[in-house]
Amino acid sequence: MAGEGGAEDLESRVDSRSRPAETSAARGEREEPLRSLQSRAASYLRGITPGTPGNAAPSAASRLSNREQAPVPPTTLPAEGRTESVTQPQQQGIARNFSIGTGAKFDESQRTVPINKDGTPKIETKKSLGPNQNLSTMPASEVTPGQKQYRAMPYDHVPAGSVKAPIPVFDEVREFKRFDRKRRPNWVGIAFFCFYICALIFYLYVRISRTLNLGRYLAYGIIILIIEIAGASTVILYGTNLLFNPVVDPLIEDPENPGKPRTELPYHVRVLVPCYKESLEILRRTIMAAYDADLPRGCSRTIYLCDDGKDPKKRKWCDTMGPEVQYVSGRKRPTGEMNGKSGNLNNVVAQMYPEGTPVPGHELLCIFDADQVASKEFFLKTLPLFDGGDDVGMVLSPQCFHNLNLHCDIFNHSNVHFWEYMQPGYDALGFISCTGTNFLMRSVAFIEVGGSPTYTLTEDYALGMELKMYGWHCRYVQEYLAIGEAPDQIRNCFQQRSRWTKGHFQIMFNKEHCPALNRRLSVGMRILYMSGVWSYIVGAISTPTFIIIPAITIWFGIFPIVVSWWMALALTIYFVSLNLVLYYVRSYKHIEALWFANVAGNILWWTYVKAFWRAVNSVFGQKITFKTTLKGASMLMNSVVRDLWMPGACFCLLFATLIAGLVELGRSPTISSPLAISVLWAVYNMISPFLVLWYGLVSREKIFSYLCRACILLSFFSGACAVGLLWALYPVEYDYGKAIKHSNFFMNSMRVGVLPADNGVSYRANALTYESGPGLTDLTGGWLTGGGAGNLKMTMPTAFATSMLAWGLLSFPKGFSENGQTASTLENVKWGSDYLLKTLNAATDANGSTTEIIYQVGNSTLDSAYWGRPEDITFSRPFYQIDASLGASDLAGDVIAALAASAAVHQSLNKAYYNTLMTAAHDLYFYATSDLGLYSAQINYTACAVPFARSTVNNGTAQAAVCTSSLNGSYFQQYTKDNYYDDLLWAAAWMYKATGDAGYLADANTFYYNYVQTITQPDFIVSWQRYYWASNVLLATLTDGGTFHERSQFFMKGWICGSVQNSNQENIIKYTDMGRAWNRNSGELGVTMNAAMLATIYGSYVAPSESAKSERYLCWARSQVRYALGDSGYSYVVGYGKKYPRQPQDQAASCQPAPATCNQVTGLLNPDPNPFTVYGALVQGMGFSDVYQDSRALNSSRVSVDMQAGLHGALAGVSVAPGTWEQCLQGTGVLTNDNVVC
Known about the structure:
The chain is α/β, with parallel strands linked by helices. It has 38 helices and 20 strands. The longest helix has 34 residues, at 523-556. Residues 1-148, 164-172, 630-638 and 942-966 have low confidence and may be disordered.
């Protein structure tokens, strides 16, 4: 790791190891006695700097220069019994006298301090305590040995009644011993971490490239993505701790003390137990445990009860414990002191190591919080680790708690993820993360860094950072060697975590101590020291964000991502990799503890927010004071309302969200993946606030542990189900181009006559090539109508299909060109208009020239009795015509519109063909508008003598059959209308579109007015039966007329909202359970597709001016098209998707390949699927039902050209329309109604 040698080398650093000069204000918060102690630690490692007594100290720069030019010679110890003096250089008037400690020799000529025979400085008795002297300010050198004082005696003071252990002396030169950190790769952790990094990269790629197409909610999606990235960064920081494991050499057994380890130095441990208001009962256990703990041979201890509470009971008890337990008190706490613990510790250390006294290297400090009870082996397991190197400044051990039920640890007091997984990783990387208790330090290290930091509430975190800055190393004991008491009252739990958080933020906002700005730390160490602060920031932002997301989705219908197959794949991989990292354990028992770590983060987010705010305010002068975590009988019993209002508010919000989501799921026609996922998300988010509310308000007994375990299972189950729902419910990405291609295939399959070589339908060939009109004019070509008309060629549905195909091609040229279907669609438009030209026959009557229109080819009676291939039809195919001059405005208007629409398509492509079409349309327009009437009124028929007659053949030529029915085979009754003004309106609008002649627009206005005078209620039908609504949309796009727009939007509202009723107070438009819009007046699915095409055309047109309405129209069109393609779980388009009709009522496709016989038995009634797939055919559907019965004997399986054309145009429209289906899923929630349209 880059930070292994975070500061300069300790062995070579001389005066440069001291802190950089600071302003008096910056240093003012430190305890005064430590000002001088800070500069005295260097001698332990560097020996004695040569100097002359009484001379002024050289500058820091000159000392550094001298060090570089003349390295410091190794130091030696004097011979036993000699008294020498050591001269130290002076800096800023502060004496720098140091004791080398044991095991090193130094130059005798440098001594000025009297030395005992054992190598320790000799203590001289000073004058007696004067009557006016204050204990807290009196120098330690003026304390009389043996007198009861309540301050720490100097470290080299020998209390009365105790025997000072001799310090061994070595004559050989002792070289600096550098700590050699060892680590080994954790291959499992590395594998999981690398998998996570790869999964994260893939996930972010998908998130950025495929999930942000959110339209007007893009900013929301980007914000959530940024927060996700921030969260992922904390996982990466955590994952780095799993890459390596520290290698700890086994302790060396002491041969003279079997079963116990030995140490190289006779360490003297100064056990400091800071306290304030803790009870004596708690402190007695802590002190006695430290007192009774075994020590390696030759080591000793002194225990200091550092009482800031000045409790006489504690003092009296300490007085009974003998010289090894000292009571230290009397410190005057500064007003508004930020960190009382640091001030307390610094006060004691300043007294133990007074100014002017040497600090031996074997002097150690051990810090125990008031409740931490050391095990018998605590010192045996920790002290030998200091032998690893002279630069080992700290040894840490983990914490555990006697009052903690690990199955109910919702505040993560056990911190297993930290002690078992993070700290070992820190140890391997050389990162020092002090935790405030159960640790030991070299006294020289403590003094060099300036003591326990007082500029923050989290002195432990800052102390570790300071040690790293000065190049010290830390070692970690992976064994629980002390047990304490965790806070269990709600107030104390939150107060403790608030203190930790504020302390981290204080350091971040302190420009002198911020890790990110600290040049004495490597880049890697800066990142690691900022990771704690960063985790608080991310937790304060991400947790409430992820609580709010499902609420926003359910209440307002806004989801921050586009759900798709790619998202399901990326999230699944990421979800697995994330859990592998977060729940990487060496023992399955730890999974529960790691889960509680996540719960604690979810509970404490508001604490992080408040701490951040207070830390920010502290930058501007607001004081932050230290609040101890009270324990035992002193625990606060405040009302939990103070701390539980935010979890309570979150729980109530999530509970209400869950109920609303379930209700919405129950009433929604389809299960929306964002809605379903948000319901599960709400369940997951409810767990943490629910647990803390139960903890604070109900019980913490045994039932709570079972409740926690149930919540663990629920959380994993909800997460897994959410991922599963992504796969089950992600919106299908339909291939609209493929669907358009299939639709063209169907139109080609309905062709008759001489088929082009590229017709593309393998089971079709030339058919009905003998059809002829008046005077044996050519009537071949066109489409079989299909549906109820079967193999008849009906002119009105042909005209409707032609005009709709042409309109779609004109409206969405890009939709066809991008999908490679422009040519095929253009061919079908021409195929239809070519046939319509053949249905017009110039004739002469008594009034002069006229035009006759063929409205039907084929005998319905004969056709209804036939089931087989069109190629096999040989019976008579009579034509049925009417005289336009006698009134045929409806039929003529339909043909005129189709010819004009086709002409508009060909206007720039084939001018000659355009002129042909427009000439015919213009001539017919004259009769249609001059001689008004319905074509059906001209048809007279009589009853036939026989119900059925076969065709007759003369000399191989088919002859028309005799009267075959009461209608003589005419099918006109199925294609009659009660109004012709909408047909004329449709015709005039298309003539205006094709020519730009304003006269046609004037006619259109007249026909429009006449039509609305005759209707009593809307029907919202778009088919050959009704052209009114289609004419409104067409004229709105041509003229921007207000009336046309108003009626078009009324049409949209009627279909989308389903709120318009008929005279019977029934909704005209209803929705099936799966979301199909069904028209009560005409329930074919094709009518819905025609309406969807109009919605696509109109929505695309008004997008620049009315974007909100446009989006709603287009989304509705998409929903209906998607329903037809398979959103209901079944595709109503033959050959598209996995489940589609296998028995559509198409005669040609139902027949086995020729020459096999095909009839009603082998074809119509055959239960097997059609031998051929009539790709693209839209079946009629089951009416108001989502359940389709796949049987060609049912009308629901009918297919027809007029019901196909609307789907054809709608497919092209939605393929290029602005926005996406995923955007359509946004914005519709419990509280958001469709006010834009409905």
